């Protein structure tokens, strides 16, 4: 078990970790609870763990979806394309 998996197990008990593929790039999503979906997006420079107090309390009424936005936590970090003003 990685340090990240241990943190999720400790701070978000009962939640499930998975990676989803977005255009060939992995995005970490942690889900838990029951009810209508509630997507909770963190700011910069945080990760999904910033929601651990609130997510656990809302999980009895909502299906909580906690992604690590691109470039944060365990989600894909975009790289710079040399010679272009764009990121992968």
From TrEMBL:
What Pfam families would the database entry show?
Answer: Abhydrolase_1
Name the Gene3D superfamilies for this protein: alpha/beta hydrolase (3.40.50.1820)
Recorded superkingdom: Bacteria
Q: What positions does the domain AB hydrolase-1 occupy? A: 36-80
Name its species: Tistrella bauzanensis
Descriptive protein name: AB hydrolase-1 domain-containing protein
């Amino acid at each position: 078990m990685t340090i990240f998996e241990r943190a999720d197990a400790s701070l978000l008990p009962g939640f499930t970790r998975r990676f989803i593929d977005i255009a060939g790039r992995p995005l970490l999503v942690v889900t838990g609870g029951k009810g209508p979906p509630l997507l909770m997006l963190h700011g910069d420079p945080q990760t999904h763990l910033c929601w651990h107090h609130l997510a656990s309390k809302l999980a009895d009424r909502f299906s909580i979806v906690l992604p690590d936005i691109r470039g944060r936590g365990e989600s894909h970090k975009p790289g710079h394309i040399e010679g272009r003003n764009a990121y992968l």
